[in-house]
Write a structure and sequence with these properties.
The complex is a heterodimer of chains A (399) and B (324). Chain A has 399 residues and is of the alpha/beta class. Chain A has helices spanning 14-18, 56-81, 95-102, 118-123, 132-136, 145-148, 159-173, 197-208, 239-243, 255-270, 300-307, 311-323, 327-350, 369-383, and strands spanning 110-112, 185-190, 213-219, 222-223, 226-227, 247-251, 276-281. In chain A, the strands form two sheets. In chain A, strands 1-2-3-7-6 form a five-stranded parallel beta sheet, sandwiched between helices. A two-stranded antiparallel sheet of chain A has the order 4-5. In chain B, 37% of the residues lie in helices and 21% in strands. Classes of the chains: A alpha/beta (399), B alpha/beta (324). At the A-B interface, α5 and α14 of A face α11 and α12 of B.
Chain lengths: 399, 324
């Protein structure tokens, strides 16, 4: 066991963690938090001024965001269980990390998600129904990244960190950095991704080119079955120091702290002091995806400990106790989330099939007669069947 | 005799290889406690320990690159790449180090490394989970590339690959993981780098591998109902190719259809077609035809039934061959 002045033995112990039975529950002394798990707003001198504009209306809006994206998440999870989606990637437990950071963005900023950022997508104005195609298998992403300031989901782990860095380099090259009106980029990835070379290279490049990019790592403690200790010896936020830029750990289940810290980090980038690494300390409350079975590799008591840190509950308690928000508001949000879930479900069931032409569309800016011939031959062959083929994607009805 | 799925056959094969040789290691993402996302390594860490079954950090370049180092040190690593589309961060290490170290060292540094890759589509997955990148490896000198097509081959081929002193890229047809077959452990397996005739016939020869083996056998069964006997050859080894059984077959049937999920341009199927027209030119009654995936990215999964070669497309192409 190491020992040095001020060393506090962590709980759980490294041995327990390495045994793979526990992920870390406590964020440690460096954790930035302004809303305790019990819902008490506590002062945070370094970051409070980033929350000066947050009154009860804004708190209620953040609460609404989190409740609605959780409801979208649960409904989509259910749609997968009922065979309407091929797979779903749950965000359960990560609502505050995503809403807090997503609401810190301005219209002129750009976000690069991994594949779990349904809450950030919500903040960028992407209707939740737009997310379904990826998971139902009708498209690879339906929104226009430039229009909404939100790149397509990136599934290959860590790839987007270099793409985000390049985008941010472009912001700088075009002179969009330098004061509070500047642009910034935010890049989302998980604790597992930090092992990928692309993430390391993103850190190197962003530092060398002073790229205005906020690396937003949602440390949800698990990379499928592997606890954080399979990826790192040191807390992830401390890695930034080695690359020459600041790293900070925020309570990712605290929507206010995440909002404040992300606003600060984006400001740093806008004014030319990027990049910044934020480690949002949170927990994946559900499986990696609907194909995963966490009961094979982690204990239920860990989940119970994290339930006490629930991001939505702590804001609800705060709204009731410190802002005297009445039951009407919560009933209203509950009704809105019911309606949203119903709309999501109906949209999913009604989604049109892409049809065989989609296989060949938009592969190239300029096609070639060789590829056009292949397409035309197949479409002619396909239409030679009078009836839809068994199992074919050609269908005149919704699923 | 035992009836097992391909997944279990691979698991049993890995277990047998690890039992035989303490230098055999299994390494990859989630291969330990979880047993891999397809459970191919299920129970191995429990039985062989964390030093022989490594839950690695999430980095494919790291998996391959450290396997190269372990091999230099005398180990025989078996790397798992979780899905076909995730191999590319490791491609640099595969091409630059794994494939070339024997050559560069004039044989002093052998590379007995196996890279297992679940490949192909048909499981309704999101992007990067359904690809067929075998040609990218078959094109690289220094690598050997194989694909199993049924549980019996899976059981023997994984062990033979581990015993090989050359690096083997081992493709597993993920949509066939749950298909079952009887394995007779007393029957000696065919050599690893050999193709096999699975069904004899006189009308047309089908040469295929991996997930399309089952499709071609089904097509041959359907063709029989129409009075046509198709010969089905499982290539099994993609580099080196073992085409002697294909030549022998084509000299009898005069017609060859090559079936694969991968895109057609610059593919394994293209190589087979080129070699067969060269060696069987005077026996051919029709040009060698191919049934493949299209030369496009893998589409959204709602399109994959159209993208993937199926029984209808195989039989349609057989008709075209016969009508030539």
């Amino acid at each position: 066991m190491p020992s040095w002045p001020g060393f506090v033995e962590p709980e759980p112990t490294p041995q327990q963690v390495i045994a793979g039975l526990h992920a870390t529950v406590e964020g440690g002394v460096d954790l930035v938090q302004v809303l305790t798990p019990e819902g008490v707003r506590v002062p945070e001198p370094r970051f409070d001024h980033y929350l000066d504009d947050i009154g009860v209306d804004q708190l209620q809006a953040l609460y609404r965001d989190m409740v609605l994206v959780r409801r979208v998440d649960r409904e989509a999870n259910a749609l997968q269980r009922q065979g309407q989606l091929g797979i779903w990637v749950p965000l359960l437990g990560q609502e505050a990390a995503q809403i807090g950071s997503g609401r810190a963005l301005t219209d002129r900023d750009m976000a690069f998600p991994s594949y779990r950022e349904h809450g950030v997508a919500w903040c960028r104005g992407i209707d939740p129904t737009e997310l379904l195609g990826i998971f139902r298998g009708t498209d690879h992403g339906s929104w226009d990244p430039a229009e909404v300031g939100f790149h397509l989901y990136t599934i290959v782990i860590g790839n987007q960190c270099l793409n985000a860095t390049g985008y941010a380099m472009g912001q700088r090259f075009e002179g969009k950095v330098g004061d509070a009106t500047g642009e910034a980029t935010i890049c989302y990835f998980g604790d597992g991704a930090t092992s990928q070379g692309d993430v390391h290279e993103g850190f190197v490049w962003s530092a060398v080119y002073d790229a205005p990019v906020v690396f937003f790592c949602q440390n949800n403690q698990w990379a499928i079955s592997e606890p954080l200790e399979r990826q790192t010896r040191v807390p992830l936020y401390r890695r930034a120091q080695g690359y020459g830029f600041p790293g900070i750990r925020v309570d990712g289940n605290d929507v206010l702290a995440t909002l404040a810290v992300t606003r600060w980090a984006l400001d740093e980038c806008r004014t030319g002091n990027g990049p910044v690494l934020i480690e949002a300390f949170t927990y994946r409350m559900d499986a990696h995806t609907t194909s995963d079975d966490p009961s094979r590799y982690r204990l239920a008591d860990e989940l119970e400990l994290w339930k006490l840190k629930d991001p939505i509950e702590r804001l609800r308690v705060n709204l009731v106790r410190e802002h005297e928000v009445g039951q009407d508001f919560f009933d209203e949000i509950a009704a809105e989330s019911d309606a949203l879930a119903a709309r999501l479900r109906q949209h999913c069931i009604d989604m049109p099939e892409p049809g065989p032409g989609r296989i060949f569309s938009e592969v190239y800016a300029e096609s070639s007669p060789v590829w056009d011939q292949q397409r035309d031959d197949f479409l002619a062959y396909h239409s030679s069947f009078e009836e839809p083929l068994a199992g074919s994607s050609i269908s005149t009805e919704g699923a | 005799m035992a009836t097992v799925t391909m997944a279990k056959a691979l698991n049993n094969g890995l277990r047998a290889a690890m039992d035989r040789d303490p230098k055999v290691l299994v390494m990859g993402e989630d291969v330990g406690k979880l047993g891999g996302v397809f459970r191919i390594t299920d129970g191995l860490q429990k039985d062989f320990g964390e030093q022989r079954v490594l839950d690695t950090p999430l980095a494919e370049s790291g998996i391959i690159g450290t396997a190269v180092g372990l091999a230099i040190r005398g180990f025989r690593p078996v790397c798992e790449i979780q899905f076909d589309g995730f191999v590319f961060p490791g491609y640099d290490q595969i091409v630059s180090q794994l494939a070339k170290l024997r050559y560069r060292s004039q044989g002093r540094v052998p590379m007995p490394v196996v890279v297992r890759i679940p490949f192909g589509g048909g499981i309704g997955a999101v992007e990067h989970h359904s690809e067929s990148p075998e040609a990218l490896f078959a094109h690289i000198a220094g690598l050997k590339v194989v694909a199993c097509g049924n549980p019996v081959d899976a059981y023997w081929m994984i062990q033979q690959a581990i015993e090989s002193d050359d690096p083997v890229i081992f493709f597993e047809p993920k949509r066939r993981y749950w298909e079952k077959a009887e394995i007779d452990y007393d029957v000696a397996p065919a050599p690893l780098f050999s193709s096999r005739v699975l069904r004899t016939g006189s009308a047309v020869t089908l040469a295929t591998y991996g997930p399309m083996v089952r499709t071609c056998l089904d097509a041959a069964e359907a063709a029989r109902a129409d009075g046509r006997e198709l010969e089905v050859i499982d290539l099994r080894t993609l580099s080196p190719l073992d085409l002697a059984p294909v030549y022998e077959s084509v000299r009898r049937t005069g017609r060859l259809v090559v079936v694969a999920e991968a895109a057609s341009e610059v593919s394994v199927a293209a190589e087979v077609a080129a070699k067969v027209q060269q060696d069987c030119f005077y026996s051919l009654e029709a040009p060698v035809l191919r049934v493949t995936g299209f030369d496009t990215p893998y589409p959204p999964s709602k399109c994959e039934d159209d993208f993937l070669p199926d029984l209808d497309r195989v039989l349609d192409t057989v008709d075209r061959s016969l009508a030539w």
